[in-house]
Write a structure and sequence with these properties.
Blueprint: H1 3-9, H2 15-28, H3 32-38, H4 44-55, H5 62-66, H6 70-76, H7 78-84, E1 86-91, E2 98-103, H8 109-119, E3 122-127, H9 130-141, H10 207-215, H11 220-231, E4 237-244, E5 247-255, E6 269-271, H12 277-284, E7 288-290, H13 298-306, E8 317-324, E9 327-335, H14 343-369
Parallel strand pairs: 2-3
Antiparallel strand pairs: 1-2, 4-5, 4-9, 5-6, 7-8, 8-9
Length: about 375
C-alpha cells in the first residue's frame, strides 16, 4: 500500500490535499510526506506514525536522533550518511553487534547492506521522515541542507526537525507555502532555431535531442538535466532555479571551465525582492534579456560570485520562466561572458522552457492516474 492510499483510507487527508501534494512533488521534488507536511496538511508526528505503520519499522524519535552515537556517525561519515539518507542511532544494548539506524527509506536493501559493511555490524532499521532526517544530518555533520528543504516562518509547536531558525531563507507568506495552481495544458509556442555558437567547450547535447529529452522525461530530474546538458558549449553558466516561498532556489546548474562554482548550486537561495532580472522575469512571467535592472546588481552579483564569474562580469543576462498556469515554478538563468546571449540561445531556451511546462503537466496527470 502507498502512503497516499493509507492516509486517504484513514481520512487523515482529503483527495484534493493528496493531489496538491503530488503536484508539489512533481514541481519541487522531495517525498510525498515531505510535501504534505510543507503544505500543512499533516504534521511530522502523524507522518512518522503512518510511515511506521506502512513500513513495519519502529520510529526514530527526536530523542533517539538527538542522542545518536558520535563514534558511529564518524565511522559512517558525512558523505555516506547523506547519500544513504541514514543516521546511526546506537547499539541495541551492551555487548551487542547490532546497530539501530534511522532511514528515510528503511526498505532500501542496498542502503541496508552498505551500512552493515561500512559499520561492520548488523543493522536494525528505524524509519524517519525526510525533513527530520535532513535536519539531523545537518546538525550532526554540519553539512547544509539543500535550500529546497529549509523551511521558515515556524508555526506554534513546530519542532526542530521541521526547520532551522536562521536567515538562509526569506520568510514564506502568511498562511504557509502557496499550493501550485490546478493545471491546464496551454498550446506550446515554437521558435525557430538558429546556428549553434562557436565555443571553447563542445556542445554536449543538440537542441533537437534536448527537446526530445524534455518531451519524454519520466521525472523532474531528467528535465533539469536536459537543460544542464544543453547549456554545455552554448553559454558560460546556466542555473535551473526553483521558485518557493518568495525565493529562487538552486536546483541544477552548469559553469563552463575554467570557472568553477564557489559553492554548491543546491545551496543557492536568492530573494525575489527589489529590482533584479530574476524578479522582473518572475513578476512578468516573461523572458528577461538585458542588463540587470538595478545599478547595484545585488542579486545578480550574489549569483555571479556563487558561479565563479567575477572577472569579467556578465554584461547582459537571460532569464526564462517555466510557467504553470501563468505562475513561474522555475527560472532558467543563463549568461555568456563574451557579450550578449546570442539569438539562438534565447530562442531555444524559451522553447525548452515551454516544453518543460508541458512535461510537468504530463507528469502531474500521470501521478493522478497512478
Amino acid at each position: 500500500m502507498k502512503l497516499g492510499t493509507l492516509l486517504l483510507r484513514n481520512a487523515a487527508i482529503g483527495l484534493s490535499q493528496l493531489e496538491a501534494a503530488l503536484r508539489n512533488q512533481v514541481l519541487y521534488g522531495g517525498r510525498l510526506g515531505t510535501n504534505l507536511v510543507e503544505l500543512g496538511f499533516i504534521d511530522l508526528e502523524l507522518l512518522s506514525t503512518y510511515l511506521a505503520e506502512l513500513s513495519g519499522y519502529p520510529i526514530a524519535t527526536p530523542t533517539l536522533l538527538d542522542d545518536a552515537d558520535k563514534a558511529l556517525l564518524d565511522k559512517l561519515g558525512s558523505d555516506e550518511a547523506h547519500r544513504l539518507r541514514a543516521v546511526p542511532l546506537g547499539y541495541l544494548g551492551e555487548g551487542t553487534d547490532t546497530v539501530a539506524v534511522a532511514f528515510v527509506d528503511p526498505t532500501d536493501q542496498h542502503a541496508l547492506q552498505t551500512l552493515e559493511a561500512r559499520l561492520g555490524a548488523k543493522v536494525t532499521p528505524y524509519v524517519v521522515p525526510e525533513l527530520r532526517a535532513l535536519y539531523y544530518l545537518e546538525r550532526h555533520f554540519g553539512t547544509p541542507r539543500r535550500a529546497r528543504f529549509i523551511r521558515s516562518s515556524p508555526r506554534p509547536g513546530t519542532d526542530p526537525g521541521e526547520l532551522i531558525g536562521d536567515d538562509r531563507r526569506r520568510s514564506q507568506p502568511a498562511g504557509g507555502i502557496a499550493m501550485p495552481p490546478k493545471l491546464t495544458l496551454e498550446p506550446r509556442r515554437r521558435r525557430a532555431s538558429q546556428a549553434p555558437l562557436t565555443h571553447a567547450v563542445p556542445m554536449a547535447l543538440a537542441y533537437g535531442a534536448a527537446c526530445e529529452r524534455i518531451d519524454t522525461a519520466s521525472n523532474r530530474e531528467q528535465i533539469a538535466e536536459a537543460f544542464v546538458e544543453y547549456a554545455k558549449g552554448r553559454c558560460d553558466a546556466l542555473v535551473v532555479l526553483l521558485i518557493r516561498d518568495g525565493n529562487a532556489l538552486g536546483w541544477r546548474g552548469y559553469v563552463a571551465p575554467p570557472n568553477k562554482p564557489a559553492r554548491p548550486i543546491e545551496e543557492l537561495s536568492l530573494p525575489l525582492g527589489g529590482a533584479s532580472a530574476l524578479q522582473a522575469c518572475h513578476d512578468a512571467g516573461q523572458m528577461y534579456l538585458g542588463q540587470p535592472p538595478s545599478p547595484a546588481k545585488p542579486v545578480e552579483s550574489t549569483l555571479w560570485r556563487a558561479l565563479g564569474a567575477s572577472d569579467p562580469m556578465p554584461v547582459e543576462v537571460l532569464v526564462v520562466p517555466v510557467l504553470v498556469k501563468q505562475r513561474a515554478v522555475n527560472l532558467i538563468y543563463a549568461h555568456t561572458l563574451g557579450g550578449s546571449p546570442p539569438p539562438s540561445l534565447v530562442n531555444e531556451l524559451s522553447d525548452l522552457a515551454n516544453r518543460a511546462q508541458s512535461s510537468y503537466l504530463r507528469l502531474i496527470r500521470q501521478t493522478r492516474g497512478s
